[in-house]
Amino acid sequence: MKISGYNFINGERSGENPSTLNSFDAHTGAALKWTFHPASRKEAEAACQAAAQAFAAYQATSPAQRATFLETIADEIDALDDDFIQLVMRETALAEGRIRGERARTSGQMRLFATVLRRGDFLGARIDQALPDRQPLPRPDLRQVKRGVGPVAVFGASNFPLAFSTAGGDTAAALAAGCPVVMKAHSGHMATAECVAQAICNAVQRCGMPAGVFNMIYGSGIGEVLVRHPAIQAVGFTGSLKGGRALCDMAAARPCPIPVFAEMSSINPMIILPAALKSRGEKIAADLVASVALGCGQFCTNPGLFIGIRSPEFSQLLQQMASHLAQSPAQTMLNRDVLRSYEKGLNHLHLHAGLTHLAGKLQQGSQAYPQLFKASARMLVSGDPLLQEEVFGPVTIAVEVEDQYELEQALSGLRGQLTASLLADGEDLQQFANLVPLLEQKVGRLLLNSYPTGVEVSDAMVHGGPYPATSDVRGTSVGTLAIDRFLRPICYQDYPQSLLPDSLKDANPWQLRRLVNGQWSEGTL
Asked: Which domains are assigned to the chain?
């Protein structure tokens, strides 16, 4: 497997910077044999300019052409061989089954957006035909459609080296929208990023797309150049609250501000209601510990907090969870930086006077042990910031409330989240029905009797939520609605057929379902 370590800019490889970065074996911490050239400011600007130059030609491609392009990217990703799988495992310490599943998710995501493009509903075509005889004033001919915003900067995530990185959901959504991409590779899996970037570039050549439609650079600190560059019109980010907020502030400070779609911090509360706890407490204990420990807790949807009403059953649940945790093995985290961050977060929890450590081996060595803490309800009610902060790793905090009123008060104290889960039986759903509208104000996805760590890629999925879960509550980073983040509406008033885009022409050559004079129509006008 050939890895050069050079940046991808306008269809060429570039490595002007003589300094290099190393990729590391996640298990041992040893440097791998490949080195990577961090992009210079000049190279980062060249990548942005290449994307800007490619935008007009790429935006002019039809949805069917872009669909074929995305499918070709998917084929190229699926063609990456076993050596690639082993490489990803070395860089991330993720298991082979997880990597193969994530690759299938990544290529499947591309193919799903290809389906969206062929379906055409993402365009949101609307036509209000002229009413020249309307009194007291005639109505002009008005036609609206959505178009790509322009070049998008995407920042790869640490915890999903494929599905949220080089060819992940942000890249897929941007390319589907007709927006060229400038990718900032994550430092935790640069060799993986290079292999995937090459797969995308192969698809660019096979499909005859503009060379600058996809660019990728390496380096820490260089992301600021991308966000501030005038060619970049939107940003996609998955990572920490600190990092995401910094990008939001940079984008807002530009002479021409741009949107940043950042997925950042969530503790994903689980509410365990009395009847469910009484009928299946032992299973809940086992399932909750399994969800917390899954993938060493390195999911943005990891259940970092669960709440129950004081009862003998809730006390027993904590004992059962402690027993399961004691049997849970330590796991290797994505890299040493992630491990250090986990240890720092645990240290803050241990030092807080309002928290009690219930279970989990002493954190030591190079692996992470799952942990269980307990907090008082008043910490949530008062908005204690420590309880609201995500600790990235296999840890969860129990909160015991006195009654339904205090449960509602505690939930009201929560900040924005990606998910909230109710574990409930029939009588719970009747007694606690008022929790649903409360949680609707707090989260992007409400779950019933399931755990949040699985995120289906589909038309109906929402992977978003109020701040600080994300920087923009109106969008999602998973599912086909993610394309809307990189589209903007444009209206044509009294334009002749010859100048209208095909999506708005009377002949309807793409056979779209359009809103015409307030009625849905799939025909010609």
From this structure: 41-264+475-485 (3.40.605.10), 269-448 (3.40.309.10)
